[in-house]
């Protein structure tokens, strides 16, 4: 290996490429702004009357590269976040040289330095010195940092239809680049405009430009092979330059893989990353963790890298097979969360939606990945496994308040059974019933309160579905709402005793308000009509907009009158109704 201490301008003038296996640009505005703050603080320490007579260097750390003999570019193994961020800083300073009308010859000279740091004009077109394997990132970077020189030109470019589409994805590398430029403008605007005198502003800008290009120093370590580069990278990481476990795993795969395997590993990794980049509920570290839980057994998220490292090093070819598993599971995750198979039953679609949007329990997905791999073409068996994990997750986490660690253990054990071809009944008997037995579930559900409209409707929906014996109530939405029998805002006229109880203990009132015994699914037309009226009016008012309406297909509203106490709806009414609903229907509604 060899090492060179390079100034920012010396570094950025060289051709670097970000390979496909590298993570995307992920620095947040907070991280970019911290770099700006550090540079500005360094400037303040050494400047005298907006000049830099004798500045010290500012060390930006070490980076690791490998020369690609074919392209002649240096492949960045570690350091692309800093390279990219430095490029955005140079781009903004470049714009300001013209904005402040810096006098010649400084303006032309420094503009030339900026251009040379950002790119070259080759074959009648501009090319950036820092290139990306992702063509969309490459295009955005080129146009935002080099071709669109001024802020107004950048903003015009960002308003194009293509850019608006890409910038709508808030987790994407393109959006992070956009944020880095926008936050950089904010920092430089504030720093320059501290001064009122135009001449001093220009001196400050020129001096800051010199500091960034000449005083920022990076130790660039050039390795002779990828194997050496990854060893150096890991050594640096172990000494405090921390990356996510996803980044470490990716580099570990490439480190142990044979040269002929690397291209497919890169493709598989890229496929997996693209699937989760479009997800609002899961990131790449989650997918890595859940895929491992689903296939190889229990592991804590913090220990994932060490486990994967040991696994792929245990035999030749495992790095490649692991990358294939990951790509397969990423596609499966997409099918389980976004692109449902039209051949699956409506119930399967509905339950997958509930797992994602209502329960929000991500640890269901290791089990679902295993079920998908085994039964994606067998809609009945797949449905049985989807129902099983949804019911278990609701029982264990939402009702019994179980621990996430135990949930992870149970899900991993159950996933391995699915991999072996065990049925949903066998999995329930061997794993899930141990952690969420009927007796304990029913006992806790009898007094459960769900202060969330989505979760509360989930509970009454599945009870109602069981009561309707085959018919299906409408999902929560425009046509059917969640009804509170005892209303959220009771009036003294219609609910005098409840108002008094609420004034005595508002927390107790809230607890009873959201208990299953106080909740109903109800058509939107009836719900709007009865609003906060008294219990007698809600049960029967002769208008057709009431719990006992002849046209109402739902069962539970018509039985509310059974639980009145001396003609009133009370806390005791809620307790009695919830006890009956739970005892009669809960085990069937959430069967294991």
How would you describe this structure to a colleague?
This protein has helices at residues 8-12, 29-46, 80-99, 106-118, 135-147, 151-158, 161-167, 173-192, 198-215, 226-238, 245-256, 259-277, 284-296, 304-313, 318-337, 346-359, 365-375, 379-399, 404-419, 424-435, 438-445, 453-467, 496-504, 506-513, 524-530, 535-539, 571-589; strands at residues 2-7, 16-18, 58-67, 74-78, 119-122, 125-128, 130-132, 216-223, 480-484, 519-523. It is α/β, with parallel strands linked by helices. It folds into three domains: 2-238, no CATH class; 280-306 and 324-445, no CATH class; 453-589, no CATH class. Strand 3 and strand 4 (74-78) form a beta hairpin. Helix 17 (365-375) packs antiparallel against helix 18 (379-399). Mean pLDDT is 90; it is low at 238-242. Residues 17-254 form the GmrSD restriction endonucleases N-terminal domain.
Could you list some keywords that capture this structure?
single chain, 592 residues, alpha/beta, six-stranded mixed β-sheet, 27 helices, 10 strands, globular
Helix content: 55-70%
The major β-sheet equals: 6 strands, mixed
CA(first)-CA(last) distance = 60 Å
Shape: globular
Radius of gyration: 31 Å
**Integer count of domains:** 3
Mean pLDDT: 90
> Runs with pLDDT <50, length 5+?
238-242
Count of helices?
A: 27
Spatial order of the strands forming the largest sheet: 1-8-3-4-2-7
Compute the number of strand runs: 10
What oligomeric state is this? Answer: single chain
Q: Could you tell me the strand content as a percent range?
A: 5-15%
Q: Which structural class matches the secondary elements? A: alpha/beta
């Amino acid at each position: 290996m060899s090492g060179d201490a390079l100034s920012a301008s010396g570094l950025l003038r060289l051709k670097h490429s970000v390979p496909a296996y590298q993570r995307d640009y992920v620095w947040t505005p907070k991280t970019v702004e911290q770099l700006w703050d550090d540079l500005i603080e360094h400037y303040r320490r050494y400047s005298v009357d907006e000049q830099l007579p004798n500045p010290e260097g500012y060390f930006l750390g070490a980076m690791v590269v490998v020369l690609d003999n074919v392209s002649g570019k240096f492949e960045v193994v570690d350091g692309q976040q800093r390279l990219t961020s430095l490029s955005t800083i140079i781009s903004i300073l470049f714009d300001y040289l013209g904005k402040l009308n810096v006098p010649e010859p400084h303006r032309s000279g420094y503009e030339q330095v900026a251009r040379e740091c950002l790119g070259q004009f080759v074959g009648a077109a501009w090319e950036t010195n820092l290139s990306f394997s992702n063509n969309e990132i490459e295009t955005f970077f080129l146009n935002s940092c080099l071709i669109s020189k001024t802020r107004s030109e950048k903003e015009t470019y960002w308003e194009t239809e293509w850019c608006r589409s890409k910038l709508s994805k808030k987790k994407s590398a393109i959006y992070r680049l956009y944020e880095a430029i926008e936050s950089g403008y904010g920092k430089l605007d504030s720093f320059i405009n501290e001064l009122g005198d135009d001449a001093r502003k220009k001196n400050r800008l020129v001096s800051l430009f010199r500091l960034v290009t000449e005083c920022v120093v990076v130790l660039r370590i050039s390795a002779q092979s990828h194997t050496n580069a990854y060893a150096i990278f890991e050594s640096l990481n172990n000494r405090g330059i921390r990356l996510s476990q996803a980044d470490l795993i990716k580099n570990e795969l490439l480190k142990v893989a044979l040269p002929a395997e690397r291209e497919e590993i890169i493709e598989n990794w890229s496929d997996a990353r693209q699937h989760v980049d479009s997800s609002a509920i899961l990131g790449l570290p989650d997918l890595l963790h859940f895929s491992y839980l689903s296939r190889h057994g229990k592991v804590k998220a913090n220990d994932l890298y060490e486990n994967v490292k040991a696994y792929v090093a245990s035999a030749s070819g495992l790095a490649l097979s692991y990358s294939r598993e990951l790509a397969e599971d990423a596609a499966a995750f997409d099918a389980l969360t976004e692109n449902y198979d039209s051949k699956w039953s409506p119930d399967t679609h509905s339950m997958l939606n509930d797992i994602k949007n209502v329960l929000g329990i991500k640890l269901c997905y290791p089990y679902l990945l295993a079920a998908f791999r085994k039964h994606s073409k067998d809609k009945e068996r797949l449905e049985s496994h989807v129902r099983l994990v949804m019911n278990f997750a609701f029982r264990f986490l939402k009702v019994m308040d179980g621990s996430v660690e135990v949930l992870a253990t149970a899900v991993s054990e159950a996933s391995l059974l699915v991999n072996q071809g065990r049925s949903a009944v066998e999995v329930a008997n061997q794993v899930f019933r141990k952690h969420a037995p009927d007796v304990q579930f029913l006992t806790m559900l009898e007094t459960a309160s769900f202060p969330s409209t989505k979760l509360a409707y989930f509970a009454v929906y599945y009870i109602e579905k069981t009561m309707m014996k085959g018919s299906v109530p409408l999902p929560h939405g425009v046509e059917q709402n969640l009804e509170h029998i005892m209303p959220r805002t009771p009036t003294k006229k219609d609910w005098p005793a409840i108002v008094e109880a609420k004034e005595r203990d508002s927390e107790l009132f809230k607890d009873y308000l959201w208990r299953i015994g106080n909740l109903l699914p109800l058509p939107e037309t009836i719900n709007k009509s009865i609003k906060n009226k008294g219990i007698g009016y809600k049960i029967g008012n002769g208008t057709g907009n009431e719990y006992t309406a002849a046209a109402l297909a739902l069962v539970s509203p018509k039985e509310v009158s059974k639980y009145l106490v001396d003609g009133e709806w009370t806390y005791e009414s809620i307790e009695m109704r919830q006890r009956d609903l739970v005892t009669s229907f809960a085990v069937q509604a959430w069967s294991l």
